[in-house]
Structures are given as C-alpha cells and as structure tokens.
Autoinducer 2 import system permease protein LsrC
Amino acid sequence: MTTTETRPPSAAQPEAKRNSPLSAVLRARELPVALALVILVTVTAIANPLFLSPQGVKDLLLNATIIVILAVGQAIVIITRNVDLSVGSILGLVAFMTGSLFANVEGIPIPVVFLAGLALGAVLGAINGLLVTLAKVPALVITLGTLYIYRGVNNAWAGGTQYFAGDRPDAFGALSVDTFLGFPVITLLALVVVVVVGVFLAGARSGRDLYAIGSDPEAARVFGLPVGRRVFLAFVTNGLLAGLAGVLYASRFNSVGATTGSGMELDVVAAAVVGGVAIFGGSGSVFGAAIGAILLTTITSALTALRVDKFWQQAIVGVLILAAIIIDRIASVRTARKLRISEARDV
C-alpha cells in the first residue's frame, strides 16, 4: 500500500496567494509611483479644471516625452549599477547638430538627420562605455568628466549661434504638433521606445544579464557573463536614446544653442530613481522610469497651474528622490532578512 504525501492546505494557500497575479501587481515597484501620478492629476484637475483640457493633456504629454526617452536609457545604465551624468550634454550636442544640418545642408532628408543624431549619440555613449569598462573607474566620475567635455565641445562649436524653428522644415516641426489618435506623434515614438526596451530587458537573455550584473558584478563574472561587454552596450544604448531625444528636442522647442540640455541629467536620474529603478542596481524597469518621468514633469506642470513657487517644485522633487532611495533601501533590507530566515529554516 502506498501513500501520497499531500501538502497541508495552510502551507499551500499562502504560497498560491503570493504567486497570484493580483499579489504580483501589488508588489510592483511601479505601483506607488502610478498611484501618486493619478492622485496628483486628480487633485490638480479639481483645483484647476483646465489642467485636463485637450490642450492641457497634450502639453503634459509633450513636456514628458523627452524626459521619458532619456529616463529609459538612464534606467538601462542604472540597472547595471552605473550612472550616466552626460546625457544632458549629449542631447545638447545632437540638438545643435540637428539645427546645423537643417540650416546648412539644403534639402537634407529628415530620416538622414535622425540617423545622424542616433549615430552621434551612440558614439558619445560608446566613449563613456569604453572609459568605464577599460579604465575601471566609477561611472559617476567618468560621466561627470564627459558631461563637461561634451558641453565644452558644444560651446566651442555653437558659440553664440542659435538655430530657430524657422531654420528647420515644417514637416520636422510638425512632429511635435501633429497628433495620431489624439496623441502627439513624438509621444507615440517615446511609447514605442519604452515598450521595445522593456520587452528586451524582460525577455532577452542579454537584457536579463544586465540585472544579474547590477545585483552582483563579481558573481556575474564568476558565472561567465560578459560583464564588460554588457555594460559597454548599456552605455551605447543610453547614448543612442539621448541622441534620439536630442533630435526630438530640436523639433519640440523653438531654438537650440550652446546651453541646450544643461541640467537635464539630474532630472533624468531623478525620474529613473523615483520610478523604482534601484540606484544600487539590479532592479527596476523602464516602465517605472517612464512613469517617474511623467510624474516629475506633471508635478512641475501641476504646481505651476496651482501657482506654487518654483522653489517648492524643486524641493518636492528632492523629497521624492530621497523617499524613493530610502524606500528602496528598506525593501532591500527586508528582502535580505526574509532570505536569511528562509535559509535558516531550511537548515
């Protein structure tokens, strides 16, 4: 006679509950950010009904588009336990190059300008990646240096020159004016970027490798992962997306010059961190980074609509960054503690 050992319902039930889709959603790092965004929009719309007018929604989406693309690239780098502070300077260089091409090369096709911007951004990102992976110097130090180098190159190239909306083709400027199904064209392009990169990180082996590298670089090397190559490609991808953002910036705004993109790197890092991308690497998603970017730009728009002083706008963003880092740290400590308890029980 044989007996079949069955798992006690009391043990099986909690495990099933933990693995349920609802439980997974509730544990998602992006959920608090999304809820904060919904609450912010609702409260602001009640105080100022024009905030959610068709034009108001369009402005919100357009304001977030550039930061969303930059935050996606930054998230890829931060997941590998690095950071890129030069993205604002890369955007500025590409944006000025875009204006220069339209102003000085008669009849240049718009797709060629996009390809040139992507190529320049990828090259600048590759420089960062090579310096980080070959010199073995922290990315914070390397990209702080290239931030000033790229900005200096832009200053030397641009000087006092500025390119305005009249220097570009109408079709190029229409990218940030025209809509499709009610959404600005460049916002839909940003959405495509978020989805493609998100699917890559979740489904491709090389994308999952980035999380392993960020969690423990030394362990990743022991397991045979090409750490240097993966980190290099993360910086190249980040530079490429910064190049795309630079081209779209030239379409979105009326002028580009030597100071274009100055200070944007801090907003981009803030968007990624607030969106649940752990500053210590190894966790987070580009979807969360995108939501974080929308949240930060919406905060600025909401406080402006409510006539709140600009100082308080910056202070609130700073509080959000600190809160995101503290919450992430607490969550990491709790996870490590549960793991130790579970291992002790198994023993």
Summary: The CA atoms of residues 49 and 146 lie 44 Å apart.
